[in-house]
């Protein structure tokens, strides 16, 4: 499966399922994602021990904007 970032819709689904009492493994199965992806999402985007999809999306966008592509160094001959 190719790498794709979580969408805003998926973040809202994670929030809803977590609030409904589903385990991280059950959430990952319903979203067809790896359990570590769900765990990482909940850990990285928690505010005051509570996950909110709005805040998670803002943090993800901010991280994406700060990210830079690595520059390939060309060896001199």
From TrEMBL:
* UniProt GO BP: transposition
Q: Which GO terms describe its cellular component?
A: cytosol
Q: Which domain of life is it from?
A: Bacteria
Task: Give an example GO molecular function.
Answer: transposase activity
What InterPro entries does UniProt report for this protein, alphabetically? Homeodomain-like_sf (IPR009057), IS30-like_HTH (IPR025246), Transposase-Integrase (IPR051917)
One of this protein's Pfam families, by short name?
HTH_38
Transposase IS30-like HTH domain residues: 3-45
Q: What is this protein called?
A: Transposase, IS30 family
Species the sequence originates in: Xenorhabdus koppenhoeferi
Organism classification = Bacteria, Pseudomonadati, Pseudomonadota, Gammaproteobacteria, Enterobacterales
